[in-house]
């Protein structure tokens, strides 16, 4: 009887330890939500989830979450839906471009905590063999998503060439539809982003890139942006640090000779099911800010303020935003502020 009682006591203690441990490991940690969509440097969070660095389900923790004592919920959806989720206050952070964050930031003070990549050829004007020069381009429809990085790439490159964007017939079209119609010979010019760029050039060998985002280096920036109020909550800074730390863990794997290819393949599975060779080209055209130093140089560098001034001016001119958002740097007050503090904190550790 005494032996049985001892077994019961031991079982009760073990169960209590398990419950306490589980509570400490999950329920006591503050919960933050990151919304992400399919794109090379944002699909990183899908890979990090599968690799166990972040467990995207509420109440479940990956190694980075345990390290920073936060519970990160990952919400994967299409790009527009992630923006809506963030703008509604239902996501604490979102993967978004430096242009698309301007509108939400007018009603939701936002902090860019991490640049993930920049377009270096990933956004391109592709033309058929019927378009030899700008005069030919003026005579055809140019299809692409208006009021987006596509129209920004198109207008900016035309201006660099001394052309007036108003002289061209840019028509609004979903990039997937535009690529399909071009591949079927129904269009002679499209402005799209990867994977549609690579797919179109492969399927239409006679097509060519007339110009792309290499003409505007560092102007299209993919980022993680957080709600300023979320960062001020208990655990908010730890959430930012965890997201940043996890992203660099992914980049460390990509840079590892033993792990790089398999990590790139995993990334491709999350980004349009592209294989290794295609992903090698993708990451050339979507340059990752793979180290804290590269991110800090961007956020604290001299080029970013002039870049954002240009992006804001374009957004106002095209009606993407109804009023001019205040953009600040170094953690200063503003609708949108670029703050390298969180990256520096992670780098210091």
Please write out the topology:
Elements: H1 2-27, E1 31-36, H2 44-51, H3 63-68, E2 71-76, H4 79-87, E3 93-97, H5 102-105, E4 110-119, E5 123-127, H6 134-138, E6 141-144, H7 149-160, E7 169-172, H8 175-183, E8 189-193, H9 196-203, E9 208-212, E10 221-227, H10 228-232, H11 236-255, H12 260-270, H13 276-285, E11 286-288, H14 292-300, H15 303-317, E12 327-329, E13 336-338, H16 341-348
Parallel strand pairs: 1-2, 1-3, 4-13, 6-7, 6-8, 12-13
Antiparallel strand pairs: 3-10, 4-10, 4-11, 5-8, 5-9
Helix pairs in contact: 2-11, 8-9, 11-12, 11-16, 12-13, 14-16
Structural overview:
- This protein has 349 residues and is of the alpha/beta class.
- It has two domains: 22-119 and 220-348, Periplasmic binding protein-like II (D-Maltodextrin-Binding Protein, domain 2, 3-Layer(aba) Sandwich); 123-215, Periplasmic binding protein-like II (D-Maltodextrin-Binding Protein, domain 2, 3-Layer(aba) Sandwich), CATH 3.40.190.
- The chain is built from 16 helices and 13 strands.
- It has helices spanning 2-27, 44-51, 63-68, 79-87, 102-105, 134-138, 149-160, 175-183, 196-203, 228-232, 236-255, 260-270, 276-285, 292-300, 303-317, 341-348, and strands at residues 31-36, 71-76, 93-97, 110-119, 123-127, 141-144, 169-172, 189-193, 208-212, 221-227, 286-288, 327-329, 336-338.
- Strands 1, 2, 3, 4, 10, 11, 12 and 13 form an eight-stranded mixed β-sheet that branches.
- Helix 2 (44-51) packs across helix 11 and helix 12 packs across helix 13.
- The longest helix has 26 residues, at 2-27.
- The radius of gyration is 23 Å and the shape is globular.
- Residues 16-24 have low confidence and may be disordered.
């Amino acid at each position: 009887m005494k032996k049985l009682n001892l077994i019961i006591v031991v079982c009760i203690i073990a169960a209590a330890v398990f419950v306490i441990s589980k509570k400490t490991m999950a329920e006591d940690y503050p919960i933050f939500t990151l919304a992400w969509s399919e794109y090379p440097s944002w699909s990183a969070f899908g890979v990090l989830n599968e690799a166990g660095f972040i467990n995207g389900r509420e109440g479940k923790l990956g190694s980075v979450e345990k390290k920073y004592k936060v519970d990160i919920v990952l919400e994967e959806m299409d790009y527009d839906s992630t923006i809506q989720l963030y703008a509604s206050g239902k996501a604490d952070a979102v993967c978004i471009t430096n242009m698309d964050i301007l509108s939400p930031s007018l009603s939701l003070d936002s902090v860019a905590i991490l640049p993930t990549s920049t377009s270096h050829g990933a956004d391109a004007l592709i033309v058929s063999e019927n378009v030899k020069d700008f005069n030919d381009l003026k005579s055809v429809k140019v299809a692409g998503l208006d009021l987006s990085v596509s129209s920004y790439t198109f207008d900016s490159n035309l201006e660099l060439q001394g052309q007036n964007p108003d002289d061209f017939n840019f028509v609004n079209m979903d990039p997937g539809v535009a690529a399909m119609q071009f591949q079927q010979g129904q269009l002679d010019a499209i402005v799209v982003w990867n994977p549609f760029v690579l797919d179109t050039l492969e399927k239409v060998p006679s097509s060519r890139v007339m110009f792309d985002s290499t003409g505007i280096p560092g102007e299209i920036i993919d980022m993680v942006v957080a709600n300023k109020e979320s960062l001020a909550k208990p655990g908010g800074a730890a959430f930012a640090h965890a997201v940043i730390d996890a992203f660099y863990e992914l980049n460390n794997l990509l840079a590892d000779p033993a792990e790089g290819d398999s990590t790139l393949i995993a990334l491709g599975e999350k980004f349009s099911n592209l294989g290794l060779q295609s992903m090698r080209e993708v990451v050339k055209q979507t340059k990752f800010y793979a180290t804290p130093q590269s991110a800090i140089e961007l956020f604290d560098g001299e080029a970013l303020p002039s870049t954002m001034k240009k992006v804001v001016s374009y957004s106002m001119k095209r009606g993407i935003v109804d009023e001019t958002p205040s953009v600040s740097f170094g953690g200063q007050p503003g609708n949108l502020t670029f703050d390298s503090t969180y990256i520096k904190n992670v780098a210091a550790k």
